[in-house]
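User: Please run a holo structure prediction.
Assistant: Happy to. Please share the sequence and the ligand.
User: Here you go; the ligand is uridine-diphosphate-N-acetylglucosamine.
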Amino acid sequence: MTKTDIVILAAGKGTRMQSALPKVLHKLAGKPLLGHVLDAAAALGDCHNIVVTGHGGDAVRALYASSNVTLVEQTQQLGTGHAVLTALPHLREDASVVILYGDVPLITTATLTKMLSAVSSNSLGLLTVTLGNPHGYGRIVRAADGQIESIVEQKDASPEQQKLCEVNTGVMALTTEQLARWLPMIGNSNAQGEYYLTDIIALARRDGCRVTSVQPSSASEVEGVNNRQQLAALERAYQRQLAEQLMASGTTLADPARFDQRGTLSAGTDNFIDVNCVFEGDVTIGSGVTVGPNCLIINSTLGDNVTVNANTVIEQATIGDRAVLGPFARLRPGTQLGSDTKVGNFVETKKAIVGPGSKINHLSYVGDAELGANVNIGAGTITCNYDGVNKFKTEIGDNSFVGSNSTLIAPLSIGVDGFIAAGSTVNSEVPAGHLAVARSKQRNISGWKRPTKK
Ligand code: UD1
Ligand code: CA
């Protein structure tokens, strides 16, 4: 296999975004536009990525400096041809090169592979699409025999050429050797005074090189982002694709238009996801899972037949089979729930390991805690895990019962079958099988008179 180098142009200003952030760092599905392009390239396998930065280059560099990407600065944006020329010294001499755009995020690896297969010493690949309204794009000019002859930019096109509907997407695949031969021959005597990369096509034809056109599998693959309206439209198009994939694999969505996946979501079958749920990072859900409306699930794993009721937030948590969560539960990082557990409304957990069958049904905070099996935590229980400086752990043995409104001051351990009377403030060990009562005694005062109005 020949080597592959990828050049991603990302030097433009992106004026229409009206933003201090460089356009290519704006996010689609939670990931910078540029990140989508880099990931599509990375899936090709061993390839070398070169990003041409300019406007906002420092921010791009700050984000990608440590990654496996070569960042090249184009100090003046003199055109797409000039941008690729800036990258040329970084290309491997014997590589095939694909030229991509940092603001065209949905290009697929499959299309890149098709592009690369069009490349040889006397052939290059050009990604084109036919549009109902081609205004603004470079037009593909073909000879009588159908061969591509050249690309003319909108501003340089004759009225006849302006009628052509096949346009240049900008994506091109060719060899380093071809780029090195033709790029220096490109001039800037055109309507915009720019060095057009597209002029390579006519130069290639003059040298007898064949130009093979490749079409993307969907229009959104080649759609660019110039403003926030286009970003929002592309976001919905992408989310729709993700929703379709999820439905095709056996998950029902109450409304595919109200589903958001910002990362990877792997799901079994027969799941039901209600409206307005957001999945972020890497989420895995089993089969038979129900997720109620308005839930946020981040970097978590849910087993089979889990029920997540409305308005629940789950982050960096592992949820066992048949667990029932929410409504309005908040599971923070480090929560590990066993099977058949319940975490109910207005319960917050953090670094909480909860054994099978245990229940925290209402209004509690359980943090830095380890609960055995079949523990019942009453409403309003608080683990006091923090003394203002250090965090301490609470351990609760199997089958323990913690009465409502208990305050468990860590470090604390409650043995197996421990029982805490409601309203207790517990700060020392409760041995197995013991009842701990740690609350003030009730006094009943007889003959008490209610206050009266003065
Ligand atoms: C370009 C193509 C046009 C095609 C269209 C598809 C050229 C001359 N024209 O036109 O045929 O139909 O894309 O969208 O290539 N960039 C740099 N440095 C520069 C100039 C541009 O990095 O000096 C980057 C921009 O950030 C942008 C991309 O290249 O992401 C395209 O540049 P732009 O000037 O917008 O080209 P178009 O006029 O859209
Ligand atoms: Ca453009």
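The mean pLDDT is 97.
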